[in-house]
Amino acid sequence: MYDKVDNYNELFMNLRPDYPIIWATLEILNPDKIVEYGAGSGRILPLYKQTHAKKIIGLDLEQKMVESFIQNGDDKERIVSYCQNICDITTHIKDADILIMTSSVMKHIEPNLRETAWDSISKSLGDNTIIFIDHCEYLYDQNKSTDWQSYFDTLKFWWAEEHRDNLKSFVWKKEVNHIDDILYYKNIDTNEEIIIKTYIYKIDDITDDIKKANLQYTQITNSFTYPHSKHQTNRFISLLTNNKFDKNRLLNIKNKIIGLLDIED
Ligand SMILES: C[S@@+](CC[C@H](N)C(=O)[O-])C[C@H]1O[C@@H](n2cnc3c(N)ncnc32)[C@H](O)[C@@H]1O
After folding, report:
1. Ligand 1 geometric centre to CA of 61 (Å)
2. Dist. CA 252 → ligand 1 center (Å)
3. Average pLDDT over residues 96-115
4. Where are the domains positioned within the chain?
């Protein structure tokens, strides 16, 4: 699914809709150690590199993504990546200040494994680790199957301006049924087609699962902060911690992030 790294990187490395909110979160937390789950090839690395973090760790299921993350990090002392399944407990997160879970990464987990995954995350988390999560029920806010359509015509505002022309070479379509939310994308110059299989994961279900795993959350916002983004469905953009974390401290952090972004609570 994610082993065609060159094709993936060409399309997705300059995707930017979550950059402002991740930037604000990093700015407020000023982390020493950053870990990202489902980190892929390091799309967010430019933001991580600008922090004072001494350790930046990507965790991903796909070996080729792990290699690409290390290569894009280009600083083996500070930036590493490991193969790791979200469903398994890991020691990498215990002393992390922040765990990033962006791009609706939990949509990749089969519904019958979600409880295991959240339980492992909860057990792996340190008492002071804050999870930043961005989750959308449907990829690209699109809750119905579609025909092929152009990235440039439909989603260009999610990309950095100087990279939008590249989107003219890519098209996408979706197959949505009762549990699956499958994305197909294709480079029309090479005709190479990739299938990304995810599952519909409702926000009410994710918040229930979070609570069952003894985690608490506070939602920062329900949309990206880009003025041109159009949304048909809400996003769950939140901070999560284990239940021992001081709730007032968490709310204070959230309010500071909101203050930096100048968005409505
Ligand atoms: C859409 S990509 C997102 C990459 C990156 N977080 C970003 O925002 O650009 C999703 C990544 O999650 C990884 N992934 C999927 N299932 C996973 C699992 N069970 N455990 C760890 N990583 C997983 C995939 O290999 C892929 O690299």
Report:
1. 7
2. 30
3. 98
4. 5-138+201-261, 149-194
Q: Give the pLDDT band of residue 146 (cuts 50, 70, 90).
A: very high
Here the tokens at position 70 are 């290390």
Alpha-carbon distance values, 129 to 89, 92, 106, 265 (Å): 15, 11, 18, 23
pLDDT band at 91 (very low <50, low <70, confident <90, very high): very high
Protein residue with its CA nearest to atom 8 in ligand 1: 103
Q: State the average pLDDT over residues 60-83.
A: 97
Query: Left if phi > 0, otherwise alpha if psi is -120 to 50, otherwise beta: which for 165?
Result: alpha
Give the atom of ligand 1 at the shortest distance from the alpha carbon of 62: 25
Query: Which residues surround ligand 1 with Cβ inside 6 Å?
Result: 2, 12, 38-40, 43, 60-62, 65, 85-87, 102-103, 105, 108-109
CATH architecture of 5-138+201-261: 3-Layer(aba) Sandwich (3.40)
| pLDDT averaged over every residue in the chain | 94
Cα 110 to Cα 97: distance, rounded to the nearest angstrom:
28
